[in-house]
């Protein structure tokens, strides 16, 4: 039995769990014995993945949610708590990006959309999670930010602003809730091979693609499983003294 990053029996809710990093996390965590809630705007993807996991003998369920809608976020928590009376970990992973462009060419609606999904969505989920975890004696909130939340990210200003906000929320809330036995950490990947990044790559010319893929010293995209494995360690009690931190997984980009 694999005892490293043991998450056996933990109830873990993942927003944006139907694709990319969220889906890889759902697979890794359920294979290690967690009960995984796969919440996504794309209900079809969430259901298909939950069925795949259940068919392989592990535990998962799907929930439809738009994280920008507070009432839907509340309903997502209600559904999750109908499956298990405690949520041990929530991974706030749902996110969008925007096509790289100078700030003046990013329209206001796209700025607001990035803030709504990537930042306000995390805010609504954190509020519900903190109330639940305070009442149940503790838990762990893992926010998926980005290296774009830690350093300059030219041409993706709206995305970068939203992810800097997520890192700020993570740090402030971690300090506020440390005594309540609630840990709050962020994960900051560089480019990872997911539908989000494939969408950007498909719109770039060959030079642009090479630049994006080779943007870190390893000269490759991260694999979703590489992020999921770090998330699994964070979900486990092995990371028990860690809160308010940003775990960077970037092929050396920020070194
Ligand atoms: N892929 C990367 O290179 C990379 C790098 C750094 C950070 N991230 C972050 O990781 C997270 C996951 O990204 P990914 O690359 O796996 O993307 P992805 O596009 O493959 O998956 C994102 C998921 O979020 C869901 N989603 C979008 N808006 C939603 C909403 N309003 N409510 C609920 N669900 C919603 C989508 O349906 C999708 O299933 C995002 O927060 C992203 O910003 C990704």
Description:
With 255 residues, this protein is an alpha/beta fold. The chain has a single domain, classed as NAD(P)-binding Rossmann-like Domain (Rossmann fold), CATH 3.40.50.720. The chain is built from 8 helices and 7 strands, in the order βαβαβαβαβαβαααβ. A 7-stranded parallel sheet has the order 3-2-1-4-5-6-7, with helices on both faces. The chain is globular and about 50 Å long. The model has no long low-confidence stretch (mean pLDDT 97). The chain binds nicotinamide-adenine-dinucleotide. Residues 15-16, 18-22, 40-42, 45, 65-68, 93-96, 117, 121, 144, 146, 189, 191-192, 194-197 line the site of nicotinamide-adenine-dinucleotide (NAD).
Low-confidence stretches: none
In total, how many beta strands?
A: 7
Percent range for helical residues? 40-55%
Listed once per kind, the bound small molecules are:
nicotinamide-adenine-dinucleotide
Structural class: alpha/beta
- Report the biggest beta sheet as strand number plus sense, adding barrel if it closes: 7 strands, parallel
CATH architecture: 3-Layer(aba) Sandwich
Radius of gyration: 17 Å
The CATH homologous superfamily is called: NAD(P)-binding Rossmann-like Domain
Shape: globular
Q: Trace the largest sheet across and list its strands.
A: 3-2-1-4-5-6-7
Distance between the termini: 35 Å
Layout of strands and helices, then pairs:
Elements lengths: L10 E5 L4 H12 L3 E6 L2 H13 L3 E6 L5 H14 L5 E4 L15 H29 L2 E6 L12 H21 L4 E8 L5 H7 L4 H8 L10 H12 L10 E4 L6
Parallel strand pairs: 1-2, 1-4, 2-3, 4-5, 5-6, 6-7
Bound molecules: nicotinamide-adenine-dinucleotide.
Nicotinamide-adenine-dinucleotide binds next to helix 1, helix 4 and helix 6.
Organism: Alteromonas marina
InterPro entries: NAD(P)-bd_dom_sf (IPR036291), Sc_DH/Rdtase_CS (IPR020904), SDR (IPR050259), SDR_fam (IPR002347)
Protein name: Oxidoreductase
